[in-house]
Amino acid sequence: MTIVSRFLSSAPPAFSAAGPRDAAAIAQLHGRSFGRGWDEDEVYGLLIDRAVIAHRAMSRRTLVGFIMSRLAADEAEILSVAIAPARRGRGWSRPLLDHHLRSLAGLGTRAVFLEVDEHNAPACRLYEGAGFREVGRRPGYYAGGAAALVLRRDLG
Questions:
Q1: Element (H, E) at 99
Q2: Strand-pair category, 111-117 with 14-17
Q3: Greatest CA span in the chain, whole angstroms?
Q4: What are the tens digits of pLDDT across the range 77-103?
Q5: 12-24 as b/e: b if 16+ CB within 10 A
Q6: Contact at 8 Å (CB) between 50 and 58?
Q7: Do residues 102 and 66 make contact, with C-beta atoms less than 8 angstroms apart?
């Protein structure tokens, strides 16, 4: 591997709004990241919903991550976040999350909620480091009996 290709493969991704044209790539990444992935039609339906805000992380022309939230009044719920399995551990989740939260704040969102598997230590660290705090728990929510932690972060 040349020095240039090593640099390009480790360069941080660019963040931008995701749209309907990204549905297939997001569905594919979602499927590789979660036990029950969303299909392309489900993702497309979300991306055309005016209440859904989505951002993508692109490395050159390849989708390497995404985050998606649904707005309701002055609150948002993060529906899903994923970084491509081969790209995890590079510190890209936090900048993607921060970019998304700034966008939500710019739209007047005052509080953001999400649910995360209590055993997903990397995600729990990410959200705790980003200022989310536990406000609830859904016992037995995930396969295997894991609880879903309900987290909240105030933006305003």
A1: helix 93-106
A2: unpaired
A3: 50
A4: 999 999 999 999 898 999 999 999 999
A5: ebebeebeeebbe
A6: no
A7: no
What are the backbone angles phi and psi of residue 87, rounded to the nearest 5°? -110, 0
pLDDT beyond 60 at 108: yes
Between CA 122 and CA 62 the distance in angstroms is 23
DSSP H or E segment with residue 77: strand 75-83
CATH class of 3-112: alpha beta
d(CA 124, CA 148): 11
Classified as helix, coil or strand, 118 is coil
- CB atoms under 10 Å from CB of 96, counted, come to 23
Whose tokens are 């990410």? That residue is 126
Specify whether the backbone of 116 is left (phi greater than 0), alpha (psi in -120 to 50) or beta: beta
Contact (CB, 8 A) for 72 and 107? no
The torsion angle over the Cα atoms of residues 77, 16, 62 and 122, rounded to 10 degrees, is -40
β pairing state of 62-72 and 111-117: unpaired
Structure tokens at 72: 């309701």
Report how far apart, in Å, the C-alpha atoms of 120 and of each of 1, 117, 126 are.
33, 5, 10
